[in-house]
Automatic annotation (TrEMBL):
Keywords: Cell outer membrane, Membrane, Signal. It comes from the Bacteria. This is Outer membrane protein OmpA. GO terms for cellular component: cell outer membrane. PANTHER family: LIPOPROTEIN YIAD-RELATED, STATOR ELEMENT OF FLAGELLAR MOTOR COMPLEX. The lineage of its organism: Bacteria, Pseudomonadati, Pseudomonadota, Alphaproteobacteria, Hyphomicrobiales.
Amino acid sequence: MRSAANWLTAILSIITVGAALSLPTSAAYAGDDGNSKNVTEDEIVRALAPAPKKPLTRGLSIGPQTAPAPSATDSKLIQSVRGRSTRSLSSTEREEIALAAKDKPNIDLEITFDYNSANISAKSLPSVQALGRALTSPDLKGSTFVVAGHTDAAGGEAYNQDLSERRADSIKRYLVEKYSISATDLVTVGYGKSKLKDPNQPLAEANRRVQVVNMENKTTASK
């Protein structure tokens, strides 16, 4: 028979294992996790391509159909922020961009970064590279895109705002350097933790994302 000491040791071991299993899986500040879903170039193109405009007459469609042109207000806003540094945008301008982007083709990318850093993690490079190929594809090349950085709710507002801006800038820099995308075609903005995708779970990985929005398609942007 086991001695009382052996039984006590066994019980303590069970308690220790149970406690370890109940701990949170990640304690990263402003969250970086190990499960990033990489998307394909085709998925990004499909998400960002303008929706076809419905023909005026049922059953009649002449020539290629494109999304309606942006409103004069939206176009003026985009022109005013093209080429601007991310940190130069005021809170009012950030909200105006968010409002204008609300009904535009967009995609959320689960791009992770090195801990407490704006360096793109190695495991997320395939997604960023797919984004670069997509934005230079014939379907999207020449459009104007918003690249918006978002964090989860961990940490203070100022810290997360700065981090989201640096991360959006990091994505833009990579796309410009590696895919020769015009810097003026990429408008970067940071929202920190102000626009959680899943507000019911403020620390969820879904909140740690980079959103890309097609603000002006290449046809309307040239007019």
